[in-house]
Amino acid sequence: MKLVIINYGAGNIKSIQFAFKRLGVDAVLSNNTEEIKAADKVIFPGVGEAKSAMLMLKSTGLDTLIPNLTQPVLGICLGMQLMCKSSEEGNTKGLGIFNVDVKRFSNQVKVPQMGWNTISELKSPLFKGIKEDEFMYLVHSFYAESCNEQIATTNYELHYASALQKDNFYGVQFHPEKSSVAGEQILKNFLEL
Amino acid sequence: MLTKRIIPCLDIKNGRTVKGVNFVDLRDAGDPVELAKQYALKGADELVFLDISATLEGRKTRIEMVLKVAEQVNIPFTVGGGISSIADVDVLLQSGADKVSINSSAVKRPELINELANKFGSQCVVVAIDAKNINGNWMVHLAGGTIPTELNLFDWAKEVEQRGAGEILFTSMDNDGTKDGFANEALAKLSEELNIPIIASGGAGTIQHFIDTFKIGKSDAALAASVFHFGEIPILDLKEALKKENIPVRL
Prior knowledge:
heterodimer, A: alpha/beta, Rossmann fold, 11-stranded mixed sheet, two-stranded antiparallel ribbon, 6 helices, 24% helix, 35% strand, B: alpha/beta, TIM Barrel, 8-stranded parallel barrel, 10 helices, cytoplasm (chain A)
């Protein structure tokens, strides 16, 4: 199993690498096109700001590589948001893998949403063995709208898509690497896809 | 529904927990990694490591500790203590910390908050504020409450939010160590005036204090040290009690 975590300078990739290590898999950090293409599974992480993250992807050509990958790809947090059509954060055009827009929570609620919330309406092998309303750790100010490609939903101010899937592309808004035993199960499920 | 968080705080010096810890099933109560793993198993939602090491050697040990915690613990954690630059934060985040907490350095140079939020994102910037109620005015203090400043708690908290902090950790120096409950009036005011999460700290003694800080103090999270370390309040019992009061918790 060759697992690559795309390393483009955005976010806390060490935690993701450690989480896979706890599952017995050594993940390689890489921004090399050939190495990413050759991987069995790809993780697309991201923490930070959408516009600058997108610029980093463009500067390395990863913006054209990622949508053309054919193996299972898992976007986490900002990674998932960048796989969407657009984001209100910096009016950023995304990779357009998921046909959905990313919006900002209003000031009716505290922003960022920070902490443990439930994921529901689970429908994907990614959630094998995960019970409805399981708790996941989230920290984000922007969300993907509820849509056809959603495979999990969460409520915060409104009902939004907390996980997405299209073909070989998966995206989760929460941090499975920080979501205790259930989060590790989701990473394990991804490895088994 | 987003749940209220329970956060044990570990005081660290030179890679060891400093305040007494009395955990029956710990092999080494002074080992922060061991303790963190236990807390993750026992229902803690997040952890805070407050590192008071002042020496260069202590700082190196801190990075090793952060790496070990990130390697072995599957819940989020914050590291605080003596952080004053982008470089300090960079190495902690690269080592696997989820958030950093800054305090005195933000008061001395408030632009640091903007710089950190722009570089790393607001989600990892916690600003810790220590304050004392002096004749009805909540005044910000530094160095563990020993040095008073001219800053009013609520003005400073608003400035901190505007500069890009993702969260505020408010410790009432009047309540800290008393086990008489959290400073709920000030906490509620912070929650009403600000739009970022507020962590309550200082004064936890009983389960009722936690119920009160979530209901009356409108806190998003509650932090405590000794009541958890000495097993006075087991986290799972606390969460069961909160749930009975219809306070949303992760159980």
